[in-house]
Amino acid sequence: MRSSNPVFSRRGFSRDNGYAGFNTAPQAGGAAVGTQGNPYATGNPYAQPGAGGNPYAQNPYAQNPYGQDVQHGAPQAPVATGNRMTMDDVVMRSAMTLGTVVVGAVLAWALLPVSSTSYGLAIGAALIAFVLAMVQSFKRKASPALILSYAAFEGVFLGVISEMFNSQWSGAPFQAVLGTMAVSGATLLVYKAGWVRVTARYARIGMTIALAFVLVMAVNLLLVVFGVAEDGGLRSMGPLGAIVGILAIVLGAFFLTLDFKQIEDGIAYGAPREESWLAAFGLTMTLVWIYIEMLRLVAIFSGDD
Model confidence over 153-202: pLDDT tens digits? Predict the structure, then answer.
């Protein structure tokens, strides 16, 4: 089962014990590794069938994070850890990516007054950000330039729409930021406390709901564009729109749990440091999702004032 975030789509939920893994595949010596006390006995999560071991390794014996010979299950000398992803790497890259979003948003808010022109620029920035995100998602390796460019254009889009919402519902962006922080913090707390166990079944159910939600929203958009549904249809600014918005935020929290698990597994498995850029990219996309939905929800509950 693949992650909700396109950036993590190559890392599937595949370990036999139900936890999230990274394209985990049994290989020669896997059983012997398990007998040494490895809790992830299905083998190196970065191993690929037929690849002869870790694709990041310089040789088939170089990168097993648990110090085992992946070919024969024999102990080996500890490997160098200088190029492995750490939590500090993830935090730093996430701060850079989210900081770029914030800078782009602040500049757009300050330099682009509310008008039809700025709205057009926001749509253009959103489309460019989408294209950059898709390009990065299908690349085999992280491209910091692409990721930061995505963040910059996403920031322009968020800055313009935030200013538009603020002009009609004063303080809505600030409340949306607080709401996003609250949802993210609560999700992290629930995840770290073990109240949510990210398993293959959990991911399958959540992704089924998420795909159904996206499909329904796409159909709703078409109905609105062709005038079949009025006032935004399911995305109206009334009670129905509020229910849909709450569901979208819950789905955003679900995406965060998958992101947290992917990051946790990447650190545990000794993923290369460049993977921290992909982690930051995935978190940024999820947080942008939650912020936009939170912004709409704040506006709905604020009424027409």
Answer: 999 999 999 999 999 999 999 999 999 999 999 999 999 999 999 999 99
Say how many CA atoms lie within 13 Å of 275 toward its Cβ: 25
Q: What are phi and psi of 24, to 5 degrees?
A: -65, 130
What's the pLDDT score for residue 151?
96
Is the Cβ–Cβ distance between 79 and 63 less than 8 Å? yes
> CB 72: neighbour CB atoms within 10 A?
12
Q: How big is the CA angle at 12 (ends 7 and 13), to the nearest 5 degrees?
A: 130
| Partners of 2 in the β-ladder | 12
Q: How many CA atoms lie within 13 A of 169 on its CB side?
A: 19
The one-character DSSP state at 186 is H
DSSP state at residue 64: -
Answer whether 257's CB lies under 8 Å from 196's CB. Answer: yes
CA 237 to chain centre: 27
Question: How many Å apart are CA 103 and CA 21, to the nearest integer?
Answer: 34
